[in-house]
């Protein structure tokens, strides 16, 4: 019976992939805008660096190598964990250097450099967004406090610390803790050119069997107006999310605030508005994170639920949860979190089918409200188990722009068309050269999109097959160049360029250049 069921599942999966592949060929599933992200976990060196080292060169080369592999896969956004446990992957006045970076907490790289600044610049040079991922409440990863630096929050403010299970946490009930976390976020968005601040699913910790979270005293003193301790805890997290979101927008309103919650908000048996699932934990009841409220009140800009179950998994079906979140993320961008780490490494047979992740990505694309995917984790993805990376490279065969960010309270002008735009022959290829519009002198575009159309006419700007390149996220350049070495002799091509602002909105198109590629050089047709 089990083998028959698995056989049926495999056949259905293959059939669906064939159908969606056929649809892709008809341009029905090829989005011009799609978030294609990866989580890069640093806690316990899951993804980066592969082992702690103070050697600056080793750290830099490892990061460059990761980015090259991401680019080859079609990724356009990196969610990098820069604060795994009240520490930092950057020089901070509020936290020590992370031991997961250099091997010893409080120790800087040698020779000295700022890893966060470096990682952001290198990521932008690849035309990708950089989202700074923070774990707000986790103070330590174990109970060994001897390894902590003297400026760690455990020693600086022991009155803020709570022991629960085998870790220490910052107490979510304390206003001082919320102020501290908002200050940490402010330090990052003020000093670095991040594209987003990202929190994952760790708010109040996952429950430890047989142990109660020790905040009853705070509840008695700080929460007497609440009917129960659960509502009070949710209120504490609500205040943090609202405060952090407000702090980000006060510094740089175009920086996004994203949350990646546990994939089940509530089970329907506990709430009529919940999903048709039987999850053993939920983000509302166990982590005290009311993500739906945060979306309704526009406290966050995107949500990326971790739908880490396979399609058809009875207690928590990926497909059911995809539709559930889609129906509720009305004013918030929705990206889907995929469990690449389970591929070929899970007792459920579905994770041993090469079609599972591609099928999930295809379903997300078919969904009316989903704008992309994020994959956990980097290390597993790059191992290419069951060809999962190869599959994504096929699904991401054409470049995709990150979805537009259009909050009602933020308005940034769309850029004017570039000037001094020229197309010339260059060593067997084509050199495209331009300068920003004069009106963009003080606020240069975030990046440019270079379009190339086959033939003498401009085609469809919404077809990603016509995107030749997304340029690096230059900040201070005055002249921009792109070299196209993929042209063929005796063929006609038409080029155009569009600037993109901080909200990922395209501006006015450039002049149009049409050329005929000759065996040597080129001929300008218009």
Task: Furnish the topology, listing elements before pairings.
Blueprint: H1 2-25, E1 35-40, H2 56-73, E2 77-83, H3 99-102, H4 115-125, E3 129-134, H5 153-156, E4 161-164, E5 167-170, H6 175-191, E6 196-199, H7 216-222, H8 229-251, E7 256-259, H9 291-296, E8 302-303, H10 318-328, E9 333-339, H11 356-366, E10 370-376, H12 378-383, H13 388-395, E11 419-426, E12 429-435, E13 447-454, E14 467-470, E15 480-484, E16 492-500, E17 513-517, E18 522-524
Helix pairs in contact: 1-11, 2-4, 6-8, 11-13
Describe the structure in your own words.
- The longest helix is centred in the first third of the chain and has 24 residues, at 2-25.
- The chain is 29% helix and 19% strand.
- Strand 9, helix 11 and strand 10 form a beta-alpha-beta unit.
- With 526 residues, it is an alpha/beta fold.
- The strands form four sheets. The chain has an eight-stranded parallel beta barrel, surrounded by five helices.
- It contains 13 helices and 18 strands.
Quick recap of the structure?
The chain has 526 residues and is α/β, with parallel strands linked by helices. Helices cover 29% and strands 19% of the residues. Helix 2 (56-73) packs parallel to helix 4 and helix 11 (356-366) runs parallel beside helix 13 (388-395).
